Amino acid sequence: MNNTAKRRQSVIKDLSLAPYGHKKLEWVQQFMPVLNILRQEFEETHPLANRTIACCLHLEAKTGYLLQTLQAAGADVIACASNPLSTQDDVVAALVDSGITVYAIHGESTEEYERFLAMMLDCEPDAIIDDGADVVTTLHKDRPEQAQRIIGGCEETTTGIVRLKSMDQGQALQFPMMAVNDAYMKYLFDNRYGTGQSVWDGINRTTNLVAAGKDVVVVGYGWCGKGVSMRARGLGARVIVTEIDPIKANEAIMDGFRVMPMAEAARHGDIFITVTGNVNVIRKEHMEVMKDNAIMANAGHFDVEISKDDLSALAASSRGLKNNIEEFVMADGRRLYLLAEGRLVNLAAGDGHPAEVMDLSFSLQALSLLYVIQNRERLSNHVYNVPAEIDRRVARLKLQADGVQIDQLTSEQAAYLASWDTNL
After folding, report:
1. Can you say whether the dihedral through the CA atoms of 150, 156, 162, 163 is positive or negative?
2. CA distance 373 to 411
3. Tens digit of pLDDT for each residue in 35-89?
4. Strand 325-330 versus strand 335-339 pairing type
């Protein structure tokens, strides 16, 4: 156990939950072979020795194993939760038992969330891993002097990268950040296959309703929206996509989905899933025309995509029906349902992305964090894409772990591709 972590007092629900949390961590470790390879390497080289790393993430088993991997690299790891409903108290207890400092409790209030984030930053981290850019924005708004001492960090969500790029464009960013979400091995797999599966896992286990034969409205056709739509079709649903981007709208049509404005889709949908990273994409005028028993769920990072204020204002009454389902009865008797308080349904009402998928994303996180720390002197205060060599290394390690071999270019082929003036 790290001596510094020993001296700190974590704030968690119950340390006695640790034994079951350790079992969860053991389970996911078996299905995260790339991170296992990196952990073994880190245990020998300790590339993060004498570094304090602050991580604001969904604190469940797969993320927990990333934190343990960073610890194996020699880091003093401190963590807080990026979402109050995704925290698994038993996993948090196991992490603290492993010597990691954690400030997180499932269901924590907004005030507690902000206090825990501040406590994590009080530990004076050298670098950060963020999920939604709350750590970065807090440093810049409330702790500008501390921000100047940060080496840099990584961000893994679309929402967070949008915020960071806005700071970058405004020349406000005080340290370099790596846009892990934009790496090929992240969005092609995590956003599409991870979100596609885990969103439906959260919806199905919460509602226990069939998707087949229903009209599912997917709001946003980015990589997450593609995954949600693909899995909805696989479950037998009729999929409607709403978009603001004409290119993505054309792509959805080519993929075989109906595309229409939200004002029209609102009249048809049985299940609505938001994946935009934007605010109030489902709001009053849409709720006013929804069918009786319409279900709304959010798969974007923040709970702002479905207007909860409008829903409450329109409702004559509301009540919690079962865990993660709230019923809102409209004045005309229609019943609308909101899942998981409008928070990330796959994590608040499920266990998040599959371990095999997060293995790729978290390997990118670990390697990108190392890259920022090791190359700080030549990095400016900007948002950077993950270097291609890191992306490809994770891809190669995944194939290696799966026992898959691929072809390589012959010298003739390499020369042909490198030349514009060839006689072949």
Report:
1. negative
2. 36
3. 999 999 999 999 999 999 999 999 999 999 999 999 999 999 999 999 888 999 9
4. antiparallel
The predicted model scores a pTM of 0.91
Give residue 382's identity as a one-letter amino acid code: H
**Strand pairing category for 383-385 and 315-322:** unpaired
CA 39 vs. chain centroid, Å, equals 22
Radius of gyration of the chain (CA): 22
CA distances from 200 to 28, 149, 259 (A): 20, 42, 21
Element (H, E) at 360: helix 355-374
Lay out the sheet containing 335-339: strands in order across: 258-259, 238-242, 215-219, 271-274, 294-298, 335-339, 325-330, 315-322
- Topology adopted by domain 193-343: Rossmann fold (3.40.50)
CATH of domain 3-182+353-401: 3.40.50.1480
Alpha helices in 255-314 (DSSP H): 262-268, 284-287, 308-314
The residues spanned by each domain of the chain are: 3-182+353-401, 193-343
